[in-house]
């Protein structure tokens, strides 16, 4: 329920967490139909395009690729030296050390 100024009334936060909008549901149905029902048609079109105009095929393929396979990107990683691990281990309490060891056994 909303107030006269358009804001949600107290106790009503709007859409529940995890609720899917109508637009998202529609896009998911379209995606499912393309992947399921029309996948053979799409493969045929792409196959003909690859043979008749390879440059256009590669251009479209590269544009579509991020929707099917996420881009990879480089990240900086800082590796800790064995000394810093040793210092961190000795800084833990007895209970924390036992908890760490139990986690290793469960993995």
List the helices and strands and how they pair.
Layout: H1 22-35, H2 39-52, H3 54-68, H4 82-91, H5 94-106
Structural overview:
With 107 residues, the protein is mostly helical. It has helices at residues 22-35, 39-52, 54-68, 82-91, 94-106. α2 runs antiparallel to α3 (54-68). The chain is flat.
Order of helices and strands: HHHHH
Radius of gyration: 27 Å
Average pLDDT works out at 82
Shape call: flat
Count of helical regions: 5
Sheet with the most strands, sense and barrel status? none
Span between termini: 48 Å
Oligomer, anyone? single chain
Could you tell me the number of beta strands?
0
Structural class: mainly alpha
Strand content: under 5%
The proportion of residues forming helix, as a percent range, comes to 55-70%
Which ranges are low-confidence, i.e. pLDDT below 50, for 5 or more consecutive residues? none
Main features:
107 residues; mainly alpha; 62% helix
Structure in a nutshell:
This protein is mainly α and 107 residues long. It contains five helices and no strands.
């Amino acid at each position: 329920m909303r107030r006269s100024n358009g804001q949600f009334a107290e106790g009503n936060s709007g859409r529940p967490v995890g609720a899917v909008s109508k637009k998202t549901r529609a896009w998911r149905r379209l995606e499912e139909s393309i992947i399921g029902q029309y996948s053979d048609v799409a493969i045929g079109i792409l196959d003909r395009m690859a043979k008749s105009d390879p440059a256009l095929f590669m251009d479209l393929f590269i544009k579509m690729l991020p929707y099917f396979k996420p881009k990879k990107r480089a990240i900086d990683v800082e590796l800790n030296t064995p000394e810093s691990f040793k210092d961190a281990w000795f800084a833990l309490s007895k209970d924390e050390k036992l908890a760490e060891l139990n986690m290793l056994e469960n993995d």
